[in-house]
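Predict structure. Chain length: 104.
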Amino acid sequence: MPDLREHADVLVSRVPLPPAAARRRVRDLLARHPGCLAAAVPGPARGCVVGVRDAAGGVRCAWLERSGARAPAPPRVVVAVVHAWVAAGGAPTALRSVTPVPGG
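Prediction complete.
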């Protein structure tokens, strides 16, 4: 069976890392998978680092908090929303958080 990561639009690490290490991991994931648009690495608490490849091939990283009274969105959901947002033409820097809506 082929390694499906080669065809992934989104990658998510399962290992929580401190923010600086998470940014390095996101950059590494995107560097090793040139077809991937976005990657996420969970932080040690209620956030994750999300990286998005820009049109020039560079990577922009952001720390997105999982805040609020509702259950936090897991990194896989956060990066999926970021991917959809960017693929639809949204600026990745416009997003600051992703909050699940009950029953949504």
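Summary: The two ends are 35 Å apart (CA to CA).
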